[in-house]
Structure formats: C-alpha cells, structure tokens
Design a protein that fits this description.
heterodimer, A: 146 residues, alpha/beta, Rossmann fold, 5 helices, globular, B: 166 residues, 6-stranded parallel beta sheet, 41% helix
Chain lengths: 146, 166
Amino acid sequence: MKICLVCSHGGHLTEMLELSEAFQGHDTFFVTYKSDRTARLKRSYRFANFTKDRLSLFSFVPRVLTILLKERPKVVVSTGAELAVPVFYLAKLLGIKTIFVESCCRVVHPSLTGRLVYPVADVFLVQWPSLVRSYGPRARYAGSLL
Amino acid sequence: MIFVSVGMHHQGFDRLIRAMDDLDTSLGEPVVMQIGASSYEPRNARYFRFAGNDEVESLMEAARVVVIHCGVGSIISALRHRVPLVVVPRLKRYGEHVDDHQLEVARVLGESGRATVLFDVEGLREAIGRAHPPPVVSDRRRDLINALSQCLEEVAGKPDREVVTP
C-alpha cells in the first residue's frame, strides 16, 4: 500500500528512519522540510521550514493538498513535528487514514503537535506509559525507541 | 576527541556552546562542535552549523565522549554507538526550546544510567570526566515496530492483494 511519511528534518526524521522496518514492502514517500539530512531521501516532497518562515505555511497547505490528491496514499504516518498538523487535517478531509507516533522525547507532558492531531488521528501511539493518561483513552503505549 | 552536538532545532543553544568553547583549551583533547542555530561562534573549538547524517554519525563514532542537547536524534545516535554520553537539556527560560520537555528525557536517561545528565553547564568538566559507556537496556524498539506494522494493516483494511481461489 502507499504510505505518506510526514516528519521534520531532525530527531523526528531519526525516529521515522528507526521505524522504517514497519514500512518494508510498502510504497512510501516523505513530506518533510528542506535540509542536508532530507536531501538524500529517495522519494520526498521537501518544504521550507515554516517554524522559521511563518508565511511559507500558506503555500504549504495547498501544495500538500495537491500532493495528497495526486499520490492518494492509503495512510499518513507522522512522528511530528508541527508539519503533521496541517497534513493530518487535510488527510481527514480527504478520508485518508492517519497514524501519529508521539516522539520518545515526550515522557510525561504531551507535545502541542500531539494535542492538535489527537482529535483527528485514527491511531495515536505514545512511547512512554506515563504519557497515556495525559492524552486520553485513544492514546496507546506500544514500545519505545529509547 | 569530544563531539558536541545541539541538533537541528531552530533555536540556538549558546549556553552549552560557549561553555564548551571556554573549556576547549584546557581539556587536552580536540573538541568538535555542531552548533546549529546558536549565535555564539566558537573561538577555540572546530565547529560547523549543520551537516548530513553521515558526517554526524562518523563524529559520534570517533568521539571519546559526546556532549549533546537532550534531543532524540542525538540521543538515539549516541546510544547506538555506545559512546560515553553527557546530556544537557535545553531550557525554555533561556530561549533554547519552546518548552521544557528535554528535562523529562534527561531524567529518564539519567535514571536508567544511560547518560550523565547535567542541568548547569558549570559542571561540564566534571561530567565529561564521569561519563561512561551506556549499559544495554531492554529493547522496546521491536515492540513499537511490530505495533506500527499491525496498525498499518488495521487502518488500511485488508492489504491490496489478488484473491487466489483454490
């Protein structure tokens, strides 16, 4: 199946790459930020970092919509960070399933990204048991990279 | 060689970069720093801002001790190389991060003995001296990968395969 992998270019990318065995045998493409680290990803759509350049968020949304319509992934998977938020809401609009994996750097307190995507994510995994209670009944602990 | 890395975060980590640069000449071994968005530019240590995966990984491997911010990418990489590790959490009050979640990661790493945790850069020299190779802890990574594979099958329904009738 086709899977859209959404992550920013630092630790969130590292976490996605650590999870890559889960995507073996599937057709994947990335939606990520432009950086040295993402330049060599095989299939990727790379965007200006909108935490640095707020205005670029306005071009990010229509471009991601076009990508999702063109690629028609069956699932969107994200390890964060903030760029997951617009992608998850667009995916919801288009009826594409979403899986969010909260970063292992969140032990007790939820991330803002996590809180914003929790209402629309079809599956919500956290990496510390102590975090389940902070989110709600749909959050699930299932193992950790740390 | 001591490798210092503050990751890809868009805010700087001057507190750590400056303290390591001040220590550089008295450590008796070279210091290499990845300084990210920090505004302080080292005067003594060799440094660069960002680099690709391969360069950072080879520095992690070559280092005797690594001193890093408490970001996941840096931690996973350092633990993989089993290199003695000092972690310094970025703090919101110094404009180093958007919140204080790095304190939480620091705490769990310290509790499991996988890193020497430092909250105040005053203690850097002593922490570098104390750093030890991380012990191997139970691998919960496999559980997460299996859970994710299973979730993918569940949310997407049956995989797109041709039905073969016997």
